Amino acid sequence: MKLHFIGTSHGVPEPDRRCSSCLAEIGGSFYIIDMGTQTIEDLRRRGIAPEAVRLVICTHPHGDHTDGLFSFLDLINWYYKQADPLILLPQERMIAPLLEWTSISSNGNPPRDGLRLRSYAAGVVYEDENVRVTAIPTKHCEDSHALLLEAEGKKVLFTGDLCRPSVDFPEVAFREELDLIVCELAHFSPDECVEVFDKTKAKRIIHTHIYEKRWGEALARQLAAPHPYRYGAAKDGDELNV
Question: Strand order in 230-233's β-sheet?
């Protein structure tokens, strides 16, 4: 499993960070976790055919995790017509506006047959020969989720936005050995995170969704400190083999 960090900013794009999006490369296919930026453009820059994307899943309905869906849907509707990803959304009511916008951007024509937009709830929400994805409810907002990816004998937890690490950090991290936790860092300090991380069974922890102006000093201090797991912070364009 290889992760491509496309957008690692907090809720607002910064000069060197875009809003949240991560691309997982597994078994020659691609799976997108959150699309808060123009992820379709990154696919093209990386030479990845949109037809190779099998899943897009958003952890919660906020725009900094979903706004890129509009351009993605527009292009797979009229240009990349062979693309057939399953698009999983945390709320059913998100589907109609996305399809209506796709119609408007196509001069009022209905979206093409084959666009697959579905809502999801807690539990196993996707499985193919490469990966299984489990959604875990969190308390960040209505219908927010963490996502557990299991692939190639590895387990990777994307926390999504949380209410607070001490309140709704996914229990699976304390029960099972995880190869990687990708933890968002916009709404609380890394000091608070580390208190929780130290109780997990994670081998490695990487921050994304980073609010450097607020937490940069504390993050630098924690990154320089010793930890029982590998500890780091992602930047846009980083790639990581799990």
Answer: 123-127, 131-137, 145-151, 154-158, 180-185, 204-210, 230-233
Q: Residue 108 and residue 75: Cα distance in Å, rounded?
A: 15
Q: pTM for the full model?
A: 0.97
Question: What does CATH list as the number for 2-234?
Answer: 3.60.15.10
- Please, are residues 231 and 1 in contact by the beta-carbon 8 Å criterion? no
Tell me the CA end-to-end span of the chain in Å, nearest whole number.
Answer: 6
What is the tens place of the pLDDT at every residue in 62-101? Answer: 999 999 999 999 999 999 999 999 999 999 999 999 999 9
Residue 183, both tokens? 């933890």
Judged on CB neighbours under 10 Å (0-12, 13-18, 19+), 230 is exposed
Q: Is the dihedral of CA 69, 46, 152, 209 positive or negative?
A: negative
Domain boundaries, the chain: 2-234
Report residue 144: phi and psi, to 5°. -90, 150
CA distance 200 to 229: 9
| Residues of the chain below pLDDT 50 | none
